[in-house]
Amino acid sequence: MPVDDREEHRPTGPWSTPPRVASAPPPVAAPRWQLSSGSVIVFTLLMLGVGIRAWKDLSRPDAFDYWKDQYVASSLTASVIAKADFDGSGRGRPALAIRGTIGAAAASWLRKELDQAHLQPGDTVLLSSPGGDLGQAIIMGEIIRARGLATAVGTADDNGRVRRAYCASACVLAYAGGKPRYGVEGSLLGVHRFVNASPASDPVADAQRVTGFVLGYMTKMGVSSSVVEAMSETSAIRWLEPKDALAMNLVTDPLGKP
Predict the structure, then answer these.
(1) CA spacing 20 to 30 A to 143: which of 86, 119, 123, 170?
(2) Is residue 204 part of a domain?
(3) What is the pLDDT of residues 128-149, one digit of tens each?
(4) How many domains does the chain have?
(5) Does residue 67 lie within any of the structural domains?
(6) Which CATH number goes with the domain that contains 123?
(7) What number of other Cβ atoms are within 10 A of residue 104's Cβ?
(8) What confidence tens digit (pLDDT) does each residue in 21-30 have?
(9) Which residues contact 20 (CB under 8 A, 6 or more apart)?
(10) 3-class SS at 63?
(11) Of the candidates 151, 163, 128, 143, the residue with the CA atom closest to the CA atom of residue 223
């Protein structure tokens, strides 16, 4: 094959001119997002609307209380007891010991704590509380009943030994959800009349509504209507005698002194 003399005698080496290559295309600039003034206005109005709605929601006392109780600091604390010892025998079943005031998000808090504790039907929820939110206490009682758990008023030491405590006001409604409901010697159950703190409400109509609501719930839980009568009689806490709590079927299974 004939060879081109020009190719044969072309100089080579570092001093030679490199062969020509096709030039690379110029870099393409990344597209820039541009917002029209109309889009900015629409976005601003949308964010403003969301902010106003959030502010209105949180400006309600009940909504703020719920947010604080759910996301900042719960008013209740819980601890898992491997063996709740009611009689000093050293034997017992697992329990979840709850202490504190029943706040605006107590029911969802309880559900989460029970899930983490892995309690089984027949295990116990120990309560020690001065009361709190009426509606949340009723939902707590419903959750306890739905899971087949027992309730008792008390605390537990590091060895699981159950000690006496008290459960008053709305706490009694959460306690009513247990089946059975243990009575620990020395522990106290306190009831009183529930009222609406809102000055705009009709006190008579409100009292009737709340009483009917509580009565329906207690009846569903197998508690005598006489406990609601005891609540209606006083605005101060009435500490029930053990025999009265038994007669009302509020306590269903009295236990001996631990």
Answers:
(1) 86
(2) yes
(3) 999 999 999 999 999 999 999 9
(4) 1
(5) yes
(6) 3.90.226.10
(7) 22
(8) 455 555 555 5
(9) none
(10) helix
(11) 151
